[in-house]
Amino acid sequence: MSKRPHWLDNAVFYEIYPQSFKDTDGDGIGNINGITEKLPYIKELGCTAIWINPCYESPFGDAGYDISDHCRVAPRYGSNDDLIRLFEVAHRLGLHVLLDLVPGHTSWEHPWFKESMKAERNEFTDRYVWTDSVWEEPEGYGSLRGISERDGSCAVNFFTHQPALNYGFYKPDRPWQQAMDSEGAAATREALKNVMRFWLSRGCDGFRVDMAGSLIKNDEEQKGNIALWQDISSFLEKEYPKAAMVSEWGEPSQSLAGGFHMDFLLHFGSSHYNDLFRCERPFFGGEGDASAFVAKYIDSYERSQRKGLICIPSGNHDMDRLARHIKGDKRKLAFAFLLSMPGVPYIYYGDEIGMNYVEGLTSVEGGYGRTGSRSPMQWDSTNNAGFSSAPSQELYIPIDPDPDRPTAEAQLSDGKSLRSEVKRLIEIRQEHKALQSLGEIEFVCDGAEGKPLAYIRSCENERIFIAVNPTDKPFELSVSGVLSDMIYSFGSGAELSGNTCIIGAGSAVFIKLGGDNNDEAL
Ligand code: NOJ
């Protein structure tokens, strides 16, 4: 998979949480046909691809990240045929579709695990990470024990009901720890490839890979995980060279070395992503500091440049909604940044209309604090915000009760809405190669407290200067090229004079740059 599918060069993704997007059969929960029905909405926004969270059969103790049948769409969402039809409709619209691949664990209800718990040796005995005594727990991992005939404790990967699949240990140091090339670990790897074959052969365009760096155990430097993904990469290159792969890893220098085309910056790990949108004083709130983010970004970018793409999401199903922390027009500035950075942007459903985090909800399907970010999409002002015709009390998660909650319908017809701004920004990105996935970036100002973020994106002969200033003061920036056409301006924009730009408070600008290449970083 190291050869990148061309469509990623200008891709903009839209993440869909299937439970909450659109219900077409009135049972209060979203479904595959609902997603298919709304594909034109996503296309109209300008997105080129979607990622759908797990939609497979599951007891739903972790919203579907606890799979009990990898090759069957959960009946509550529809059928395999519905999903195949979704692929077809998406492709006709020019959209690509990534499914979620959950390689690290299954549900404890998965038939593999049921077989693996048996005392008698069988094909699945080594499918999971087991110790050889119920009294010995796998150190460093949570465990599941006392429920199997077999004498052993099974490592878990996330919640207790998600036993860890066995891909081996990087450095086995206990008799029960199997090597990466052991028979059991090799069989798990083959089983994973079969799951991928199943969906890729039915029209899916690739996968978002859950907890991709968690497969090989005792692998501090991730060398084992990198090697495992390199193997999957060569399998894909041979059998499905067009498949696109994005990892939930959060360390591009590792994941891209493993052959992933893209890796997410996330709300955990070392990226300082939270400094921008989700901390006490986020940069896009106007008073924060983006400099640690920029320093880490430059490091990851330089180490991964040309190997793959770094993806900065607006949010996802695991983190607070952007709108919980960033208010009003500052959200537009956040999108001006997200949609002008290198790599592939991901928009979490509803973030384009500023959907809020719904406070005070009881946990649904293992969501806990994440539940408030998973409420139904707000389509219009009809019953249940147009999400479902079910009685409101039967919805999977309640709709945001705010009487002023935003809706897609209202924002579509308002040229000044957040959605219109997001659409405009995507259009501008699509018109300028320098702004797309592969355009280079050079920072001009690192967003340290009181300062804007400013950078130059370039590709071939095109150079575009970008300044985003969420602070409440104008700021003077200079570049050594000639600032020419303003291709985007929000807020009061900027005053330009020669090579100097005074970016207004609460403003963003994209300006074409002519002249020589020796910009001085401030
Ligand atoms: C990360 C997923 O994004 C999250 O929703 C899930 O709970 C865990 N992985 C476990 O699969």
Could you explain the architecture of this structure?
With 522 residues, the protein is an alpha/beta fold. It has helices at 32-45, 80-92, 111-116, 183-200, 223-239, 252-255, 274-277, 291-304, 322-325, 330-338, 408-412, 418-431; strands at 13-16, 49-52, 56-57, 69-73, 96-101, 143-144, 154-155, 206-209, 244-247, 262-264, 309-311, 346-348, 440-446, 453-459, 462-469, 475-478, 482-490, 494-497, 500-503, 507-514. An 8-stranded parallel beta sheet has the order 11-10-9-8-5-2-1-12, covered by helices on one side. Strands 13-14-15-20-17 form a 5-stranded antiparallel beta sheet. Strands 16-19-18 form a 3-stranded antiparallel beta sheet, with no helix packed on it. Helix 1 (32-45) packs parallel to helix 2 (80-92) and helix 10 (330-338) packs parallel to helix 12 (418-431). The chain is globular and about 80 Å long. 1-deoxynojirimycin (NOJ) binds next to loops. 1-deoxynojirimycin binds next to loops.
